[in-house]
């Protein structure tokens, strides 16, 4: 997690700006300050236009501010993200930012008063005449507030008087600063570890398929299909090894032989076409190039030098995202021979997109083993150490390397730091400290990453810097972070662009992600590499702080604070919190202490925009009333807390945009929640949100997961009328509480253009005449842009017009219809041009599906891929489309609980269908022969006595037969040579099973097939990975053992689950040697008291076993004796073995986890103090029944 304030912060500050004081600072936030100052000028003009007699000279001052803003903005932009060491300049910039923050608060308070006035009077300012507007503004604005506005303008005027000096200081400072770059060359500096895969991919592109020594290179062609010039970008985060990989390619002997001409140019952020062209020509011509040659002249020379030659040019570290300069250079390089390549390395995906002619090579961190080899080489080099000392350092080194997340530059730099002192104590000190606390490390790593930051625009810099308030290894959620940016005012909607603030923020986040500031994980979450996060910390030291248990001073400039301390009393009464705009809690707190701390903090921190308690581990039951005084609060998150009550005062927070009360199951909301008119995102349990009366007043709301219609005031369907901004999914339930079409139309679903999914549900028990129900649903017509529709409980005999005519919902991609109990025919859904998913369930009246299902169209269901019919009790026939083409792209078909269905147009689906699932249906056996493209077939509860005809299904990869009492597979399996998965369960009629032809089989499950005999054994299944054999007592005949030949057998088997006494007695005969087995589950060994000698021998050969589960051996008295000698086993579970003990056994020393479940004798002996405790005390994790006995 994130390190405490203290040494880490000050080390970082020392590197950046010598000391953390008002005289030395990092400038960040130019974009925000400029925005606020523009807003200030506009607001002052608006509010003081008729008050010039009251404040003489204000008009002139305002006009001056407007005129000066471009210069002020230019100065701030020049200082953005740079260490400012001149005390006067730092102070001036700080005063400017402070003035912007103060102005933002004042303007925000004025907007708050206007919102409160509107809410109180339930009228809008637009209802008044122009003169009344002016009068109202004067009424809202007190004389003190007008004076404050004038003073703010006056302060800016004073600050501006020094701008000439500041411009000179910055100009002088920047002229002395060199860009943070390092010049590279084509020479490989060190051994390269890993990257073999990436190297080979690139070489496949660069080189011809056959590079014969005697062939002429002029006639050769590259491995790609480009005509004359291919551009291959290598893109990745700074320090990931792009240049190193390019050097590896450039110096490969095959590349040297293949290309007539090779050149390397270090480009950096100055894409100087003339300089680059000169360097490309330098080694390829003997002509002298004069210094005063024109750009056109040098480009012509480059064209001549490369004409008809196959060349490889490397442009290293490119940053020009416009592409305009590259176009100049590209134009003269196209005269080269076919197969010529330009290899580009860049940190910018935009550069890769602009310059590349093929998919870029995205370079990620090194794999763990490769990174360790790099780190070990950097740390030890050629030093010869005594074996014991080296092993100790290696153990520490591995732990250090794990903290670097595979970034090669970090490994090299930190490794070289360790190399300077091969001392165990020093290495432990590095391990126990945060590695970036070392100035040497930062000086050699951050500059490479800072280049990416410098190329961001000011708005992106602001948003990125804010991320430093989150702990290290924090899991980012995109929407959550964007909402915090919005709350801080970092995202502003531009009038000329029809985009929500959320969409703009999402674009910013995507831009940062594309530049590797965020790294995607599973489930649409993101993380930030430690080095990137440290960059954010360094550029935002004056405003953002994470503070831990060690007491640390909070600088007066801090505006965004994260508390990761359990000692809140340290900060009680702190007087420096009044400037805070964000506060996040991470820690365990006593409820009384945290309540008093919050109360005091909220009373002081009036500028707070973001308050996040969602990571608060406390029994806090309510928030202080003082929260009602946070006029600027826009983001409040109390999710996953114990809070049961929000104070009434929260309903007056007119600026609140986000309220999250998810997983606060007992929470009660105040009565006036509908007064939060600026609320855009409301998250909570459905039962909680449904409490809100008059939710329709929240007209800014962007999402509403579920709305429950009720016949009580302010809970009617009409509440949805004003919620025109709703997005994503809306579920409307209890539709039986709507009485007429007119009432349904009040929801105005037809106008909700941003909804992508709609769920309409009526209670099945509510009675309503079918015609009346159809009319009500007519009034619920959604917008034509809808993509997903679900209808449950519809009681009409036919669907409303908007479901029948395709012109209304032509964008639908998914439809789910359930429990339409009176519906006589399915609407013509085949007319929907983009429908991909269709699921229809519980249609008890439908008897026939035919032409009406497809509609009047040449191709019905042109894009449908998945079709599910479930619970059609009376359905008998499914007819084809009378000559029309239908379901041309269907991939998956499920027919479940269609008990009477006998006719299905399988023959028309044969070319596209890949997956078929049949459950509780009639006999389709012969019809399945035509489905030759099928790869997956599942059949369950199949009652037919006719054998299935599967022999034609040669593409089948997955076959699952479950509870098919009459089914027999005779020779069909022998033809299914592509089969990879075979599951047979509850097939009592299956007498014989031969698997000898199934050489591709990977997963085999045979369960509860009592008479089935295995013909030919399992030794042919040389690719089998998992095997489950249960309740198949006649599977083998012990009198006829199957010989496993050397080199054959289940050598790839990884997981085995086997049960039944007979099978367990014949493990060696049935399975032979299993050298790759890692997971073993044996069970249902009835009557077994001890393992036989043959079984013990079988256990001994399981040399890769990591996990063993033994259960339901009621009479078993001891474990396999060979278990103690296993060096691989890590986890052991024993369950429902009533007589077992460890009296005769010892457990393996490598065991890491032991679980005992319902083994009374064993439990009594294995508890602390029990007879067998000494035998298990060495195991780190011990769990007995529902209790953890021991854990690391």
Automatic annotation (TrEMBL):
Listed GO molecular functions? ADP binding; ATP binding
Q: Name one GO biological process term.
A: plant-type hypersensitive response
Q: Which residues form the Disease resistance protein winged helix domain?
A: 469-536
Q: Which InterPro entries would you find in this protein's record? A: Apaf_helical, LRR_dom_sf, LRR_R13L4/SHOC2-like, NB-ARC, P-loop_NTPase, Rx_N, WH-like_DNA-bd_sf, WHD_DRP
Disease resistance R13L4/SHOC-2-like LRR domain: from which residue to which, for each copy? 581-941
Domain named Disease resistance N-terminal: which ranges? Answer: 37-124
Domain NB-ARC positions:
228-382
- UniProt KW Nucleotide-binding keyword: yes
- State if Iron is listed as a keyword: no
* Keywords (A to Z) from UniProt: ATP-binding, Leucine-rich repeat, Nucleotide-binding, Plant defense, Repeat
Which family does the record assign? Belongs to the disease resistance NB-LRR family.
Protein name (Swiss-Prot/TrEMBL) = CC-NBS-LRR protein
């Amino acid at each position: 997690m994130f390190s405490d304030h203290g040494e880490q912060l000050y080390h970082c500050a020392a590197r950046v700006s010598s000391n953390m004081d008002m005289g030395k600072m990092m400038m960040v936030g130019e974009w925000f300050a400029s925005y606020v100052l523009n807003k200030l000028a506009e607001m002052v003009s608006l509010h003081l236009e008729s008050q010039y007699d009251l404040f003489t000279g204000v008009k002139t001052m305002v006009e001056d501010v407007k005129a000066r803003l471009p210069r002020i903005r230019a100065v701030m932009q020049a200082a953005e993200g740079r260490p400012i060491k001149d005390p006067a300049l730092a102070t001036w910039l700080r005063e400017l930012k402070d003035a912007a923050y103060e102005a933002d608060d004042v303007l925000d308070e004025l907007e708050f008063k206007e919102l409160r006035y509107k809410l109180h009077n339930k009228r809008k300012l637009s209802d008044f005449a122009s003169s009344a507007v002016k009068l109202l503004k004067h009424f809202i604005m007190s004389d003190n507030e007008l004076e404050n506005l004038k003073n703010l303008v006056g302060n800016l005027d004073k600050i501006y008087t020094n701008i000439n000096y500041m411009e000179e200081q910055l100009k002088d400072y920047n002229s002395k600063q060199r860009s943070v770059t390092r010049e590279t060359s084509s020479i490989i500096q060190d051994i390269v570890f890993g990257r073999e895969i990436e190297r080979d991919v690139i070489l496949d592109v660069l080189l011809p398929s056959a590079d014969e020594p005697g062939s002429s290179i002029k006639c050769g062609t590259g491995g790609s299909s480009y005509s004359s010039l291919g551009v291959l970008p290598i893109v990745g985060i700074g320090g990931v090894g792009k240049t190193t990989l390019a050097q590896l390619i450039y110096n490969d002997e095959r590349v040297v032989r293949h290309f007539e001409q090779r050149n390397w140019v270090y480009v950096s952020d100055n894409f100087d076409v003339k300089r680059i062209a000169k360097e490309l020509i330098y080694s390829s011509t003997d002509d002298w190039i004069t210094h005063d040659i024109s750009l056109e002249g040098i480009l012509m020379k480059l064209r001549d030098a490369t004409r008809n030659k196959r060349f490889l040019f490397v442009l290293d570290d490119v940053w020009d995202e416009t592409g305009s300069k590259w176009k100049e250079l590209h134009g003269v390089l196209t005269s080269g021979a076919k197969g010529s390549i330009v290899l580009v390395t860049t940190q910018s995906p935009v550069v890769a997109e602009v310059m590349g002619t093929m998919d870029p090579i995205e370079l990620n961190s090194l794999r763990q083993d490769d990174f360790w080899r790099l780190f070990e080489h950097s740390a030890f080099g050629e030093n010869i150490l005594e074996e014991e000392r080296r092993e100790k350092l290696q153990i520490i080194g591995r732990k250090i390397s794990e903290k670097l997340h595979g970034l090669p530059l970090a490994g090299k730099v930190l490794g070289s730091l360790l190399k300077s002192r091969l001392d165990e104590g020093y290495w432990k000190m590095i391990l126990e400290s945060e590695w970036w606390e070392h100035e040497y490390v930062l000086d050699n790593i951050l500059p490479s990453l800072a280049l990416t930051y410098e190329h961001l625009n000011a708005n992106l810099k602001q948003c990125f810097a804010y991320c430093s308030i989150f702990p290290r290894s924090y899991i980012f959620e995109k929407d959550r972070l964007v909402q915090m940016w919005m709350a801080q005012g970092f995202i502003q909607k531009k009038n000329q662009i029809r985009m929500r603030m959320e969409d703009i923020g999402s674009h910013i986040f995507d831009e940062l992600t594309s530049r590797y500031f965020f790294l995607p994980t599973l489930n649409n979450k993101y993380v930030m590499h430690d080095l990137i996060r440290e960059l954010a910390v360094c550029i935002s030291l004056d405003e953002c702080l994470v503070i831990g248990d060690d007491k640390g001073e909070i600088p007066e400039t801090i505006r965004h604070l994260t508390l990761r301390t359990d000692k809140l009393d340290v900060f009680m009464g702190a007087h420096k919190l009044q400037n805070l705009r964000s506060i996040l809690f991470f820690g365990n707190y006593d409820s009384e202490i945290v309540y008093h701390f919050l109360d005091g903090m909220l009373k002081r921190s009036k500028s707070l925009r973001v308050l996040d308690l969602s990571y608060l581990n406390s029994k806090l039951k309510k928030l202080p009333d003082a929260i009602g005084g946070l006029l600027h609060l826009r983001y409040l998150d109390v999710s996953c807390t114990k809070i049961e009550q929000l104070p009434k005062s929260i309903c007056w927070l007119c600026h609140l945009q986000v309220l999250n009360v998810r997983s606060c199951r007992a929470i009660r909301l105040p009565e006036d929640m509908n007064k939060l008119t600026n609320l855009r995102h409301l998250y909570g349990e459905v039962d909680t949100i449904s409490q809100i009366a008059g939710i329709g007043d929240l007209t800014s709301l962007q999402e509403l997961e579920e709305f429950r219609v009720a016949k009580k005031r302010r809970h009617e369907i009409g509440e949805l009328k004003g919620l025109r901004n709703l997005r994503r999914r809306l579920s409307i339930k209890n539709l039986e509480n709507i009485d007429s079409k007119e009432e349904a139309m009040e929801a105005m679903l037809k106008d909700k253009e941003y909804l992508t999914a709609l769920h309409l549900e009526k209670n099945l028990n509510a009675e309503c005449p079918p015609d009346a129900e159809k009319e009500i649903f007519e009034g619920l017509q959604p917008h034509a842009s809808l993509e997903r529709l679900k209808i449950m409980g519809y009681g009409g005999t036919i669907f409303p017009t908007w479901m029948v005519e395709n012109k209304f919902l032509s964008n639908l991609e998914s439809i789910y219809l359930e429990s339409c109990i009176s519906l006589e025919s399915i609407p013509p859904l085949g007319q929907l041009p983009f429908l991909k998913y269709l699921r229809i369930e519980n249609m008890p009246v439908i008897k026939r599906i035919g032409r009406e299902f497809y509609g009047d169209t040449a191709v019905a269901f042109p894009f449908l891929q998945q079709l599910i019919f479930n619970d059609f009790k009376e359905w008998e026939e499914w007819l084809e489309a009378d000559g029309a083409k239908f379901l041309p792209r269907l991939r998956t078909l499920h027919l479940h609980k269609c008990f009477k269905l006998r006719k299905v147009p399988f023959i028309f689906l044969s070319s596209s269908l890949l997956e078929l699932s049949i459950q509780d249906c009639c006999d389709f056996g012969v019809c399945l022969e035509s489905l030759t493209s099928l790869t997956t077939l599942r059949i369950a509860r199949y009652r037919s006595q006719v054998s299935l005809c599967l022999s034609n299904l040669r593409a089948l990869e997955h076959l699952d037969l479950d509870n098919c009492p009459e089914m027999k597979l005779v020779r069909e399996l022998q033809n299914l040579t592509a089969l990879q998965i075979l599951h047979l369960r509850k097939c009592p009629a299956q007498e014989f099973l031969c698997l000898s032809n199934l050489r591709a089989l990977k997963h085999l499950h045979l369960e509860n097939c009592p008479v089935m005999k295995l013909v030919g054994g399992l030794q042919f299944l040389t690719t089998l990975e998992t095997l489950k054999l249960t309740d198949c007592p006649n599977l083998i005949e012990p009198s006829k053992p199957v010989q496993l030949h050397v080199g054959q057998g289940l050598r790839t088997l990884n997981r085995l689950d086997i049960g039944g006494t007979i099978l367990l007695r014949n493990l060696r005969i049935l399975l032979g040697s299993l050298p790759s087995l890692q997971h073993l589950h044996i069970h249902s060994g009835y009557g077994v008291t001890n393992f036989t000698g043959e079984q013990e021998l079988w256990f001994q050969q399981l040399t890769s076993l990591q996990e063993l589960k033994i259960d339901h051996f009621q009479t078993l008295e001891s474990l396999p004796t060979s278990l103690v000698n296993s060096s691989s086993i890590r986890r052991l579970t024993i369950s429902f073995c009533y007589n077992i003990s460890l009296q005769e056994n010892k457990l393996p020393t490598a065991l890491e986890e032991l679980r005992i479940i319902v083994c009374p004798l064993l439990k009594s002996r294995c508890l602390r103090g029990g007879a067998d405790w000494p035998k298990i005390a060495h195991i780190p994790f011990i769990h007995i029944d529902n209790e953890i006995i021991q854990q690391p």
